[in-house]
Amino acid sequence: MEKKILIVAAVFGFLAIILGAFGAHALKKVLTLDQLTSFETGVKYQMYHALFLLFVGTSNMLTLKDKTIVFYLTVVGIFFFSGSIYVLTTSSITGIKSKIIGPITPIGGMFLLSSWGLLIYKLLIKK
Question: Per the record, a Pfam family (predicted)?
């Protein structure tokens, strides 16, 4: 499982760099400043959590079961939080109707908070 976590972390980091460059260069010409700022927020949180997963995957302070739960909470959180932000901010150029996607962003945030909360809890109870 640790290898899977590290691979997914590396992929998320890789994609965050690509999306960040895409936003800074290609999207700069077609999105508003507010849309670009929101897009960047999605990229930042994706990268933060890629680094978080690198920590989780290499930590010897968590059981494999705990790592697995944190991993899935984080992956779902990234898809819901950052993914929904990417769709929402680019809907004007992609034509994707985004009204239904808006509520997904805070759900993704709750998954991310849950992954951090579980980590904190597991570290606090660790003997």
Answer: DUF423
**pTM recorded for the entire structure:** 0.90
Contact 104/84 with Cβ under 8 angstroms? yes
C-alpha–C-alpha distance, residues 75 and 20, integer Å:
19
Cα separation, 65 vs 27, in Å, equals: 40
Residue type, 72: Y
Distance CA 110, CA 115 (A): 9
Q: Determine the Cα–Cα distance for residues 55 and 6; give it in Å rounded to an integer.
A: 9
String of DSSP letters for 16-63: HHHHHHHHHHTGGGTS-HHHHHHHHHHHHHHHHHHHHHHHHHH-SSS-
- pLDDT beyond 90 at 97: no
Answer whether 51's CB lies under 8 Å from 76's CB: no
Cα angle value 85/86/91 (rounded, 5°) = 100
